[in-house]
Design goal:
Helix content is about 75%, strand content about 0%. Belongs to the sigma-70 factor family. ECF subfamily.
């Protein structure tokens, strides 16, 4: 029975979880994270109290998973430097295949935001969650989400303007 609910949630929310993780991690290689999110949800399903929407619960799991992996990776990088001090550690980033230049600029600008602003931009602006749904994921009030979203949009606009992003061109492109 638990498998059925998770399968249903996977069918309904996998694209949202994937999209969130792509923007949050900065890579399109998130299949393992998506799979792990749903595996964790399956194991913790009994603790799901239906106080929030399943999608926001899954997004919370995905967010915590990425944060935990990032912490582990940072610790491992520090340990690795001590084990191999004469070898320079290289950051091997996968090449991003984002075809649309405006999306690339937006993506890079989002990555430059502080994490609290990046979270709210992804949840509210990209995934189009309501303030209440976003507040469930971020564990804060809906009012705080609205304030953070407004501030994040201003910062994002400033970053894009500093980089010479042409708003008129993108507005004409969408119409």
């Amino acid at each position: 029975m638990d498998d059925g609910i998770i399968e249903e949630w996977f069918m309904n929310y996998e694209k949202d979880i994937t999209s969130y993780l792509v923007y949050y991690t900065g890579t399109s290689d998130v299949e393992d994270l998506v799979q792990d999110t749903f595996v964790i949800a399956l194991h913790k399903l009994k603790s799901f109290q239906h106080k929030s929407h399943p999608k926001t619960w899954l997004l919370t799991i995905a967010r915590h998973l990425v944060i935990a992996r990032h912490r582990k990776k940072k610790v491992w990088e520090r340990v690795k430097r001590y084990l191999t001090p004469d070898q320079s550690t290289k950051n091997e980033l996968e090449e991003r295949s984002i075809k649309n230049m405006e999306n690339l600029q937006l993506y890079e600008a989002i990555q430059r935001l502080p994490s609290r602003h990046r979270d709210v931009i992804i949840l509210r602006g990209i995934l189009e969650l309501t303030p209440i749904e976003a507040s469930d994921v971020l564990k804060c009030s809906a009012n705080k989400v609205n304030v953070q979203f407004h501030r994040a949009l201003k910062k994002l606009q400033l970053i894009l303007e500093m980089e010479g992003y042409n708003h008129e061109k993108s507005a004409n492109y969408s119409g």
